[in-house]
Amino acid sequence: MEKDILKKLEKRLADGEITEETYKEIKARFENQEKMSHEEFEEEEEEELESEQIPIDVEGKRKRVSLSGASKSSNINCVYFSSSGSSKIEGYLQAEEAKISGATKVEGDAHFGEVNASGSLKVEGKTKANKMYLYGASKFEGTVKARYIESKGASKFESDLNVDDFSSSGALKIEKDVTSKTFTARGAFKIEGTLKAHEIMLTPGGDSSVTNIIGGDILVESGGGGGLFSMFKRGALNTESIKGDKVYLENTRAKIVEGDEVKIGPGCKIDLVRARSVKVHESASVDRKEKL
């Protein structure tokens, strides 16, 4: 049976259904697993859940849970989760790999190894994940903690966001604070709290805003480099304050900009700049300068 399982995993890897990292993790678990009998595993591996009320054994971890159509479930704990219909989970959702192409609502906490959401995903509780690929409409009401997030759809975070590496190229709204190592956003975004990251790269589309920015290297540029982002070339960033080590700004409106090395590029309107070294473009406006 173990050889059959490994063949299936290898086929899913070759077809691009799972990542190499997920493949290795599942393979290691299957190789160490000796408790489950042939009949028990076969029953869970092939299980498809499509009923209105789906019983889930919360004491153990299922291998696969697939929801389609109008479905309602409670407390899902599985290796692989997929949803292609309108699904509501009354409780938590834990999955090592999840694919969501329909509309899925989780009323409790969500914990993913990797999630790919091309449909509508809503989590009312807290969210933890290694990797999140958000290509549809996503909403997270509780805090989110992740290693990597890629957002290309419309994503909304209503609580604090803590992520190592974040990349957005769609519509983004964050209502609280963001803590990150690398934060990149292109397109329309609004961050109502403080954005704090080692490296920050922003290319606003239209009038985008961040209340406060704190970082190491901070880059705000107005051009998207053509293609899809050519419509964003006149984008502007509105912010209360920017504080970093190296700061370069274009089309930015701010009350205070502070840093070791600050370059105020074209289209900027800054009330006060505090810096050890500062350069101001001829088209920019700076009301006051102070030496650090």
Quick rundown:
This protein is mainly beta and 292 residues long. It contains three helices and 21 strands.
Please characterize this protein's 3D structure:
The chain has 3 domains: 42 residues, no CATH class; 113 residues, no CATH class; 129 residues, no CATH class. About 13% of the residues have low confidence. The chain has a 21-stranded parallel beta sheet that branches. With 292 residues, the protein is mainly beta. Helix 1 runs antiparallel to helix 2. It is elongated and about 65 Å long. It has 3 helices and 21 strands. The protein is 12% helix and 59% strand.
| Order of helical and strand elements | HHHEEEEEEEEEEEEEEEEEEEEE
Gap from first CA to last CA: 69 Å
Q: How many domain regions?
A: 3
Question: What structural category characterises the helix and strand content?
Answer: mainly beta
Number of helices: 3
Percentage of β-strand residues: over 45%
On the 0 to 100 scale, the average pLDDT is: 84
Binned, the helix content reads: 10-25%
Give start-end ranges of low-pLDDT stretches: 33-59, 224-233
Query: Which term fits the overall shape?
Result: elongated
